[in-house]
Design goal:
single chain, 334 residues, alpha+beta, eight-stranded mixed β-sheet, four-stranded antiparallel β-sheet, 6 helices, 17 strands, globular
């Protein structure tokens, strides 16, 4: 099964619709969710910035993510999930992953996992245990070896488990990343068109042509400028990038359909870079998010590619023909 969107979106052109279509609006309003602090993270918090510089003891004991404000404005129906994240008072000079996580047993969870990664748990008779990432990404193209394990195991029966199954899988997708400024603020545009394994600093390993874009943060950690520090550190410029999980970067898409998922900010711990207080990919903030992935030709975003979409296409680009529209959008969702 391909990580890219599949499923036919037939073109049923109903020309009688054209008489009233041209007067219709086609833009759905954006939606906004506000993330909440995750006070019980799945991993240890990191108390070093992206340059491995230690935050002050007073900051470590006083700061938590309920003090941050993060709003996500997004298009609820489009070919990709895209929008803008606006953050205030996250950790300063700090790297975060943007992540979607599904709910085990749902279609959306499977779609997210097939574009991203799998977290596997096993029922031991009384609890879900042995949680682990499936970590063989193969050549980067789907289905990868992790998907093969998922399909082999997902339907194995265990009558004593709450689900009736032996294994529980959570699909998650790391699709972008950013570095905050000296105040822990960021304004960041995102889109779900890539799939990453983890983040690295270029001082740890060199990026390849298959990896995500290098992103930089330049800052001067000074206690006179930020209460997060009690040491005057030298000025730093740190470069980070996303290691590919599925290929190609910029060309991995969620399948068409409805999604109810968790939008999560995860702390990047850089595999323990910095030693003590380096963290362990702790969940920082999150919220439920609901959206619909449409076909590329679904101009009016109703889930069907039809005559009304042709009308929108013509209105946006005078002179195009039915044949041109059908050639571009009438066969499938890529």
């Amino acid at each position: 099964m391909d990580a890219k969107r599949k499923g036919k979106c037939g073109v049923g052109f109903v020309f009688m619709i054209f008489l009233f279509i041209f007067g219709m609006g086609n833009e759905a309003p954006g939606k906004t969710i506000n993330l909440s602090g995750l006070t019980s993270p799945t991993g240890d918090y990191r108390w070093r910035d992206v340059a491995d510089q230690l935050y002050s003891q007073s900051y470590q004991t006083s700061y938590n993510y309920t003090q941050a404000n993060v709003a996500v404005t997004y298009d609820p129906a489009a070919p990709t999930l895209s929008g803008t994240l606006t953050a205030a008072n996250l950790k300063p000079n700090f790297a975060y992953q943007l992540k979607l996580a599904g709910s085990p047993g749902t279609a959306a969870n499977e779609h997210i996992g097939l574009a991203g990664r799998w977290w596997q748990e096993e029922w031991n008779g009384s609890a879900w245990t042995n949680g682990q990432n499936l970590n063989n990404k193969g050549t980067g193209f789907s289905p990868n070896p992790n998907d093969t394990i998922y399909f082999q195991n997902r339907d194995i029966v265990n009558a004593t488990s709450p689900t009736g199954l032996k294994y529980r899988y959570t699909g998650y997708l790391i699709y972008d990343y950013f570095i905050t400024d000296e105040n822990g603020n960021a304004v960041f545009n995102f889109e779900t068109n890539s799939s990453y394994h983890v983040l690295w600093k270029t001082s740890q390993r060199s990026e390849t042509s298959s990896d995500g874009a290098v992103k930089s943060g330049s800052f001067d950690a000074d206690p006179s400028l930020s209460p997060a520090y009690d040491t005057d550190y030298p000025s730093q410029t740190i470069n980070i990038f996303g290691e590919w999980e599925r290929l190609p970067v910029g060309g991995v898409h969620l399948q068409v359909g409805d999604y109810l998922a968790q939008f999560i900010l995860t702390e990047e711990s850089f595999h323990g870079s910095g030693g003590s207080y380096a963290g362990n990919w702790a969940g920082a903030m999150g919220a439920d998010i609901q959206f619909f992935i449409t076909c590329p030709g679904d101009m009016d975003r109703d889930g069907v590619v039809d005559g009304s979409d042709l009308a929108e296409y013509i209105r946006d680009d005078d002179g195009v023909s039915l044949a041109d529209f059908a050639a571009n959008f009438g066969k499938s969702c890529f």
